[in-house]
């Protein structure tokens, strides 16, 4: 892929992640768990994971979180998003590397969703200075498995199309 094409695709993925984030904020989701979301912008991270290098995907995650904060967040949402996004990315990258032939896109996505929630719980424990928030984690894990499955399925069917268009 040429450098210009790569920069263009990275820019498009960051923009799509931002649009998905804004769309998700408008959805009135009656989740059983307060604060749980679908994680639609994680589709972008998962797709990028299969198309780009470590540094490029890290750049996409960081830009997506920063721009999301500018367009509709706060300092606290930035802290939760950056912690969840980075931990999720590192976990997905690691699992993809070690289990390339044994872990599907859906499995990697579910690991990313669980890791994202763990990152957010760690930040929440630090912010409120109470480790008891960890007792909320099992409820978040149930939501993470469902949303991770949805993001994984979506990414699985989106990847061949994007690879074909940009190869």
Instruction: State the helix count.
Output: 6
Q: Which fold name fills CATH's third level, the topology?
A: Arp2/3 complex 21 kDa subunit ARPC3
Secondary structure: helix percent: over 70%
Number of strands: 0
Element-level helix/strand string: HHHHHH
The CATH class turns out to be Mainly Alpha
Distance between the termini: 7 Å
The biggest sheet, with number of strands, parallel, antiparallel or mixed sense and barrel status, is: none
Sequence stretches where pLDDT stays below 50 over 5 or more residues: none
Over all CA atoms, what is the radius of gyration? Answer: 15 Å
- Give the overall form: globular
CATH-defined architecture: Orthogonal Bundle
Helix/strand class: mainly alpha
Strand content: under 5%
Mean pLDDT: 90
Q: Number of folding domains?
A: 1
Keywords:
Hpre_diP_synth_I; Arp2/3 complex 21 kDa subunit ARPC3; 77% helix; Heptaprenyl diphosphate synthase component I; transmembrane helix; 167 residues
């Amino acid at each position: 892929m040429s450098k210009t094409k790569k920069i263009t695709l990275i820019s498009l993925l960051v923009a799509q992640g931002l649009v998905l984030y804004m769309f998700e904020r408008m959805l009135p989701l009656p989740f059983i768990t307060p604060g749980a979301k679908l994680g639609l912008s994680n589709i972008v991270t998962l797709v990028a994971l299969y198309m780009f290098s470590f540094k490029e995907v890290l750049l996409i995650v960081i830009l997506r979180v920063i721009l999301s904060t500018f367009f509709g967040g706060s300092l606290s949402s930035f802290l939760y998003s950056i912690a969840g996004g980075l931990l999720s990315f590192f976990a997905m990258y690691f699992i993809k590397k070690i289990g390339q032939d044994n872990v599907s896109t859906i499995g990697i996505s579910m690991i990313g969703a669980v890791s994202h929630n763990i990152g957010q719980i760690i930040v929440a424990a630090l912010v409120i200075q109470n480790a008891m928030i960890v007792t909320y984690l099992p409820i978040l894990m149930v939501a993470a498995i469902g949303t991770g499955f949805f993001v994984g399925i979506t990414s699985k069917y989106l990847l061949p199309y994007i690879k074909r268009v940009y190869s």
